[in-house]
Amino acid sequence: MDRRDHIKRLMALGAASAVPGSLWASTAQTEGAVKSERAFGYKRSVSHWTVTDLEWEELCPWLADQGIEAVDLVGPENWHHLKKHGLDSSMCNGAELNLVDGFIHEEFEGVLHERYREMIPHVAKAGYTNLICFSGNRRGLSEEEGLAQAVKALLPMVKLAEAHGVVLQMELFNSIVDHPDYMADSSRWGIELARALNSPSFKLLYDIYHMQIMEGNLVANIKENHKYYGHYHVAGVPGRNEPWNDQEINYPAVMQAIDATGFDGYVALEYVFQEPLKESMRRSYNEFIR
């Protein structure tokens, strides 16, 4: 054994001793459905836009068989597929305009109010909880101006959400690689908004991929600010691919940090698949977001 192999083996032994054994699945186990006891207390999901190569009637029963509870980013037109197979819509969509025209711009306030007033009761009636929203792009607005308008525009929607038991979740994006000019590109800005709204019906969707690009310090941030985070998304950096060992985020450590906060909401896969869909999801669920 040469020096490089010896160091690799030592690193592997160290990692194995630091992580609960139940976090890792054997090769034989990953060949079948996930039947083992769950290592973590949160629930698991997958964002639908990443798995559209699978028809609903193939995706939903497979997820149910794997013990996966939900599908993310599903609108009312497809909720019947989920209900047929006992799956949750872990993050509803359909009220937003798009990713760039959001609550920080006064010119969109009226139409956003109209759409969210219609969708919030619809989500509640269907038995779901989470509904996504977006800040929108800056377009020259300062952070202070964007924050003030977002508070003004969101406050009545948050009050309506409270009345219906719905939670509005604003997603944090990176503005370096994927979403140039997006306002809510830091946990700091999002937390300021959440504090100003001061409601259990407003949370931040903490996308681990995006926040690694923007600010890093993931584990400390989650431990300190978890009360503001209502949902998590998973992908590898760089490339937004599988969250495995060939990218820079230590997902076992991040997942342990999330679980240690007592979080019992959803952690959703949201990456661009490089491996066959089912095999990739199975490995991610077995090894990295258990």
How is the secondary structure organized here?
Layout lengths: L2 H16 L8 H4 L12 E5 L8 H11 L3 E5 L4 H6 L3 E5 L16 H17 L4 E4 L9 H22 L2 E5 L15 H11 L4 E6 H7 L3 H8 L3 E6 L16 H10 L5 E4 L7 H12 L2
Parallel strand pairs: 1-2, 1-8, 2-3, 4-5, 5-6, 6-7, 7-8
Helix pairs in contact: 5-6, 6-7, 9-10
Q: What is Rg?
A: 19 Å
Question: What overall form do the CA principal axes indicate?
Answer: globular
Strand coverage percent: 5-15%
Under CATH at level 1, the class stands as Alpha Beta
Total domain count: 1
CATH architecture: Alpha-Beta Barrel
Distance between the termini: 33 Å
CATH superfamily: Divalent-metal-dependent TIM barrel enzymes
In the predicted model, the low-confidence regions spanning at least 5 consecutive residues are 1-36
The helical percent reads 40-55%
- The count of DSSP E runs of length 2 or more, i.e. the number of strands, is 8
Mean pLDDT: 89
Sequence of strands across the biggest β-sheet: 3-2-1-8-7-6-5-4
**Class based on secondary structure composition and strand pairing:** alpha/beta
